[in-house]
Amino acid sequence: MKQKSKPENSLQNIDIQNLLYDVSLLSFKNFRLRDFLKEIHKRISGLMSAKNFFVALHHKTTDTYTFPYYIDEFDTIDPETHLKLQNTLTDYVCKSKKAEIITSEREREIFKNKFQVIGEYSPVWIGAPLFNPTTNEVIGVIALQDYENENAYNLKDLKTLEIIARNIGLFIDRIRTLSILQESEERFRTIFKEDKTIKIVIDQKTGRIVEANEAAFEFYGYNDLTSKYIFDINILQPQQVRSAMNRAIKKSINKFNFKHKTASGEIRDVDVFSTPMKVNNKDVLFSMIFDVTERNKIEAALKESEQKLNEAEKIAHLGNFQFNLKTGETNWSDGAFKIFGLDQKKDKLLSIEDFYSFVHVNDRKLLKQEIEKSNKQNRTLNTTFRIIRKDNKTRYIHKIGKINFSADGKTKYLFGAIQDITNSKRDEELLLQSKKQLEIANAAKDKFFSIIAHDLRNPFQHLVNTTELLLSELGQNIDPSAKELATIIHNSARYSYGLLEDLLLWSRSQMNSMEYYPQNIPLSEYVQSELKLTNNLADKKGIKLTVSIPKKLNVYADENMLKFILRNLLTNAIKFTKRGGTIKLSAGKTKSHSYISVEDTGIGMTKSEIDSLFKIGKRYSSLGTEKEKGTGLGLVLCNEFIKYHGGKIVVKSKIDQGSNFKFTLPFPNKNK
């Protein structure tokens, strides 16, 4: 029966925890230093790139290093040789007291290219300082390096290495301590008192603390520590503490994880290593105690981080996976199991074929082809497919993956993330339906405006022409009231026709159905040919209209739109300028665009009136100085047409001081 797979992160964390547990046990066994380091190396090799591994010990008095253990693909070092290692990574980590992953770029940053290379150069190096737990001084460095892959190590590797370094420092301290203890009883007493590792001696029969070193007094904070019982500082029940003591006395186990209470009431996590021995012919337990509160916090933070990742996957409907492309075995996160409607504790999903069995039959072949392409071409996988879950629900899945090799370069993996995008797909389908409905509505609207344009424009045009003809045919002897009525009808028809034209033009601009054909236009010539109508209007009101446009100034614009803009701005200026006033039409250019300006000496506007000029919902239309009417849509359309050109219109005005309308246009197109 196949065993169900665990997520990659969970497996890796378990491996790290097992490694740290093994290293912790090893550090209290009776090994020679080289044999101990060899066992450490063997265990590290299972979790990270460790072909090149060494431990260097620092000799403070000579500022030199020896290498009790040095394994490298290219070099060897005599373990008895003392080396000066200034400006090396080993010396840097030792002196900085910080663990670090150092790439080539980081190396240059540290040494400013003035560094010393011992042996072959590698693109990545990871190292951690070894601390003497007694003095908290750095006594050396543990390091690994990879000659091929600059991305061989990550932060989890670094944290793991730091904890291992602490255990190596502990081991070195322990073997030194045991060596000294074996030399003489007096030597033992000296070390016991002066050593900064927390040490206590407990009477086996009573549990009374009969002796403690200064480090113990400092850690626990009790002035009367040697008159207390171990039951007073251990928060376990007395019978549980007695049971642990019996196991230590029988040597069935010598390491314990306890919580000890200090004089301040603080509870600290401690690792206790107890050994039975005789002191002055009395049976005692000699215990070394290590405060591991911070280490446990780090481990708890790692666990919490993993839980948060699982929670984030759950919220985002995400999961991660890894395929072994050689064996077909897979690893899935808890989030991935949930996407497939599976329970990680009850269901299994081991092979890639198991995975394909969930894929919709119509998508299976294409997905296999995509994965094969990703494998052969070593490219990122990015695809969407359907699955049929265990509960027979169809879900849309988006999958992103990347090819990677194992640390030894022998095994190829496809790893990445999957996301349930079913809801997004449904939203997309609803959006497409809405788009189709909108297109139908727009088509109906276009048809409606087409009918308006055809069926209303012609009657209005006919009415305007008829009333104009009627006015011209009426003689002087006709009843004045009849002539006034005819004039009102004509003006009303002309106004309504103008409003209809502007509405149709605005609607076309909103539907992006305007014909827009920009071209290079010599502005001075163009303006002169278009000023006939506005000149007549200005003359009727006795307004002086001046033009100041450089003869060589060209603009890039649609001819009909530009004509509409100029005509509206000029007629508006005439409309709101009193008799005898002036209007100036000018143009020029800056570094980025051309501009056209219409400036008058008219009645001006307030700020609120300016703000309403270009808003269709707040059409601004008022009578001119001689009761002239406008539709209120002209300026709105001017603004729309200027935007068509990528330009902008700016209005400045003051009451009774006139107005200035200035808009920009692009430079001439050199390709035209």
Describe the protein's topology.
Layout: H1 8-26, H2 33-44, E1 52-59, E2 64-71, H3 89-96, E3 100-103, H4 104-111, E4 124-131, E5 138-146, H5 155-183, H6 185-194, E6 198-203, E7 209-212, H7 214-220, H8 230-233, H9 238-249, E8 255-261, E9 267-279, E10 282-291, H10 293-316, E11 318-324, E12 330-332, H11 334-339, H12 352-358, H13 361-377, E13 381-388, E14 394-405, E15 412-420, H14 422-473, H15 480-510, E16 518-522, H16 523-530, H17 532-540, E17 544-548, E18 554-558, H18 559-575, E19 582-589, E20 594-600, H19 607-611, H20 634-644, E21 649-654, E22 658-665
Parallel strand pairs: 17-19
Antiparallel strand pairs: 1-2, 1-5, 3-4, 4-5, 6-7, 6-10, 8-9, 9-10, 11-12, 11-15, 13-14, 14-15, 16-18, 19-20, 20-22, 21-22
Overview of this protein structure:
By secondary structure, the protein is an alpha+beta fold. A hairpin with a 6-residue loop joins strand 14 (394-405) and strand 15 (412-420). The model is unreliable at 1-7 (pLDDT under 50).
